[in-house]
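Form 12-C: Joint structure prediction
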Amino acid sequence: MKALLAQIRVELALALRKGETLLLTIGIPVMFLCFFSAVSVVHSPTPKRVDFLFPGILALSVMSTAMVSLSISTGFERGYGVLVRLYATPLGRGRLLAAKVVTIAVVELLQVGVLGLTAVLLGYHLPHGTSPSNLLVVAALVILATLGFAGIGLITAGRLKPEVNLAAANGLYLVLLLISGMVIPLSSLGSFASVSRLLPSTALAEGLHSVMSFGTPVGASTWIVLIVWGIVAPGLASRLFLFE
Amino acid sequence: MTTKATTPPEGAAIVASDLVVTFGDTMAVNKVSLSVEPGEVVALLGPNGAGKTSTLRCLEGYLSPTSGFVRVLGLDPVAEHRAVVEKMGCMLQGGGIYPSMRVRETLNLFAAYYPNPRDPGELSTLLGLSHLAKTTWRRLSGGEQQRLSLALALIGRPSVLFLDEPTAGVDPEGRLVIRDVVASLKDEGAAIVLTSHELSEVDAVADRLVFLAQGAVLASGTRASLTASLESGSTFESRPGLDLEALSLALESQVSESRPGHYALTGSLSGGEIEKLVTALATQGGTLEAFAASSGLEDLYHALYANHPAEERVPSSRRRRR
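Section 2 - Result
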């Protein structure tokens, strides 16, 4: 437990010490939320833009932490030989992975707090009739998506050179931001929307929109997509990840 | 000078027997056998690509042998890795530290991994890192990074220690510190295997030497036993391709060219004789660029590797471990 706690402390310190990580995980989502709430750039399916944007930006934040940030940091740790060095200590893969999971969870909680406060200040309200059980649904969606995103991030981190992975992770972030219905509604994507619905980012955004924007149940297809990604991506990562 | 086929002795802390490691078609380690007793320092020597690091990586548990047998403290370092690492200290080439972590922070983190660690403060003082406590890894000099790497290898009170090029890039003061630390660990009973190109450092700390070439053991034994057959001598550098016969005649000593521009001669030269060497070189259009009285070990090294040119290294992409 001493080793795990020390590793969590260091992972958190390293994550929060890096300005670029904070910008990616908190700064950009907050800026997007404020900007797109104030300016009518895209059509919003809800009367108040923030009611649609907040769940989508929350999905973006989860993706930025669980996929992009994890992938970039792990890629560089691999490149610097940190993972190889840790292999020669009693820390073990399990505790290293647990420390990374806890770090992601803490950063996500921080994101929810900051984004939630910003959204409320911008006039966001949960849909009428939202019950506490809906919050559990939100938590389940986020956990499943986090697993899927982390798996994708670790696959690229464990296979590509750190600099290439940095570019790939940021590129993927931008593409998924545009095609996953996070900020731009899926209805604007035309026939491409059906392909997009197979992505974990789209499933998360749709699920969060259902609960937090429209007060409707999450569709079965959304759950299936997230569950499949949540199982397959980490499984592939564990098979494909190279420590050096 | 003899090659050694080791029968694992009773009580050896580290044993490798007929160790073979291949990467595709390349044989990186070819039937290497060695054993290290508690309180003994064994140095693996050889040019780049000779198989030193691959051998070390097998002993550390990073690589599974293609065939052969490895035991560290009686355990298989791959299959029983978790049990081995609690008693093992590793100093890798290239650090492997989070670049933005501070020295003291790194020591505290690694101390937390072990059940009975050394005090990070005491280790900082021992390795001359106290004044760098708040400096990040990326801001340390090469020598300071090596000292921190060594500190991390020592923090778990290891019974076996693997040091890959411990003094590479370290200043003379730092080398003395590392030399003292290795000597004190040896006195405490740790079994130590190191690789190095710094023959003077190896000479100062190693009890036994294992020379590798093309992945195989070329010679092994104590320094005294290996150099007994060599006469004392000197080395010098000048332009390549000097007329060795004329030089030998002028100096009344046998001169040989171990590598292009690197020469060895038997016997030691007095001040007047060095002048004679300078004159003899001048007659052939050469100048004396470096001169050293032989350490014995250096002669041995050059004698052993005279017929083994620089070896092909295994590309890192083929050495990757999942």
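Section 3 - Comments
The two ends of chain B are 39 Å apart (CA to CA). DSSP finds eleven helices and 13 strands in chain B.
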